[in-house]
Amino acid sequence: MAREFEVRREQDLPATPEQVWHAVATGTGNLGWLYPMEVEPHVGGKVTRADGTVVVWEPPHHFAVRVALDDGFSNTLTYRIEPLDGGTSHLRMGIHWVHTGVVDDTWDTKADAAEKHVDFYQHALAEYLRHFAGRPVVYVKAGRGERTDDPADFAALRRRLGLADDTTVGDRLSLDLPGVDGGSEEVVVDWLSPDFVGLRGPDALYRFFNGSTWNWPIWLGHHLFAEDTDEQQATKAWSAWLTCA
Fold first, then answer.
1. What percent of the chain has pLDDT over 70?
2. For position 34, what pLDDT does the model report?
3. Which of 2, 15, 202, 214 could form a disulfide with 129 if both were Cys (CB 3.0 to 4.6 A apart)?
4. Which stretch of 23-27, 69-73, 183-187 has the lowest confidence by average pLDDT?
């Protein structure tokens, strides 16, 4: 018997439908707020993330990708974009999972992770469109190899970032940038929860992910918009920083 799970979200976005479309349905757009995911622009086109396939391609209003795995699992990611007054847009987004095989004891963990990641990424989409849309971007990812179920590990990382126990969204702090001699910049806390930390700098969205909630590794995925960013150097620096956290 199939088991299904669905996440649905709606939000108003500070961008035109064409700008939202570029952000969600192109490889260069995805780098600015999500993760590397190249998209062939037609129905039947390949999507590099998890070997997906484009199942709806109606720019700039309706885009959907489906991923199917051999174990009976599939998911469909759908975006519907509607114009609003003033050059803004309304986005309806959803993920629909179906599993027709044997559902193991990790199902609820995966469902919880999916719902929380959707909220975090949808917020990042709005941040990208509001502050960085159209700018060249480098995506930097680093992770610890070990899994963890100890929340103290992420608490230690938060302290290294300079987050106090009473820090809230909207607070400003000075972030030391690894690999940059004497480098620091003022950032704004744009997301703060037990599972994620989001910091927005003048040329970056810094994203930190707490794997301990789901017994996954702690990792980071940053979107760097400064034109002189060296991807290899930034990746090396942030990897070393995370390993020492």
1. 98
2. 96
3. 15
4. 69-73
Starting from the edge strand earliest in sequence, which strands make up the sheet with 62-68, in order? 3-13, 89-99, 73-83, 62-68, 52-58, 46-47
Residue 31's region, left for phi above 0, alpha for psi from -120 to 50, else beta, is alpha
- pLDDT of amino acid 74: 92
First to last CA, the chain: 44
**Quick one: pLDDT band at residue 153, thresholds 50, 70, 90?**
confident
SS3 percent helix, strand, coil of the chain, rounded to 5, is 30, 35, 35
DSSP annotation of 177: P
Q: At what angle do helices 17-25 and 107-131 cross, to 10 degrees?
A: 130
Report the amino acid identity of residue 245.
A
Q: How far apart are CA 173 and CA 26, in angstroms?
A: 33
Reduced to 3 states (helix: H, G, I; strand: E, B; else coil), residue 173 is strand
DSSP, collapsed to helix, strand or coil, labels residue 74 as strand
